[in-house]
Structure formats: structure tokens, C-alpha cells
Amino acid sequence: MSLKSIAPMLYTRQVRESVDFYINNLGFTCIGYDEDWGWATVSRDDIEIMLALPVDNTSFTVPKFTGSFYIRTDKVDILWSELKERAVICYPIEDFNYGMREFGVFDYNGYLLQFGMPIE
To answer: What pTM was computed for the model?
Structure first.
């Protein structure tokens, strides 16, 4: 047995608007959407992110997450050029002393997405 992948489920009250942001601003494709369920999946390359209305038994007022979603890429500079004008920047592209070149942006709901690659 082995774990194969992870697809975060991000709660939002605006599923359609969130999907549109991922498509129009971050270059994702919607690969599943069900308005009745209040659920969608967006993908780009090997990354999948699910967006959903919160489940009934969850206390939910605003989107919250105490960490970030770190997405590894092999072309961080190209991705930075593509996204820097399309999303709210958390921090611009930078080389870090822990050996990564990365940047961070916020999605439609304020979730932090970081994109990085090892410095060669």
C-alpha cells in the first residue's frame, strides 16, 4: 500500500466564483462541477484542488486555514510571470536560504498558495 496524491478540499460559500478565479487567474481547468452538491474540482498539470460548500456539521463563517498549500514546479520564474498580475501577492519571487526559489499568492477566498522549486 502507498499513498498516491493529495487533493485539498477548500471550503467556500462561493464555489462558482472560486472556480472562475482558478480558471481565469491561475490557469486551472474545471474537471468537475456540481451545483446541487456545492462542489467542484479544478486541476492544472498534476495538481487537483477541490472547492466545496462546507459540510452541514462544520462551523464555518469565513475561509480559514492556518498554513499554506505549497506547490512544487519546475519553472517557477515562468509561473511567476504568468500569475503576478492575476492574483493578490503574498510575497514576490525570491531565493530563500533553505534552497528554494518561490513566491506566494492568495486565491479568491484568501487561501495562500505558494509555488516553488529547488535552486540549482
So the answer is: 0.91
